[in-house]
Amino acid sequence: MASSSVRFDDESHSEKLARKAKEAPFVPIGLLGFAGVVAYGAYKYKYRGGMSTSVFLMQLRVAAQGTVVACLTAGLAYGMARQYLFKSDEKKEMK
C-alpha cells in the first residue's frame, strides 16, 4: 500500500463528508434541499387549513423525496457529462 493513499479507517466524520462531497457534489445539495423542504413543511404545518395531518405529511414526503431525486439525477447527469462529453477537453488542458 502506498504511503500517499487515504486510509478510510483513520478519517473523521467531517473528513469523510468532505471527501464524499468532492466525489459527488450533488449529494450534499440534495441533503440540503431535503432539509429545506422539511423546514418549509414544519413552518407550513401550522397554516395547513382544513387539510388533515396525514395528507399534509404525505405531500411533504413526496416533495422532499422529489427534491433529493432531482438533485441526484442532476448529479448523475453532470458526472456522466464530465466523464464522457468533456473527457477530450480535459486531456487538451493537461497538455
UniProtKB/TrEMBL annotation:
Q: What PROSITE patterns does the database record attribute to this sequence?
A: HIG1
One Pfam family of this chain: HIG_1_N
In terms of InterPro entries, this protein maps to: Hypoxia_induced_domain, RCF1
Where does it localize?
Mitochondrion membrane
Its Gene Ontology biological processes? mitochondrial respirasome assembly
PANTHER family from the entry?
HIG1 DOMAIN FAMILY MEMBER 1A, HYPOXIA-INDUCBILE GENE 1 HIG1 -RELATED
* Name of the protein: HIG1 domain-containing protein
Q: Which organism is it from?
A: Gryllus longicercus
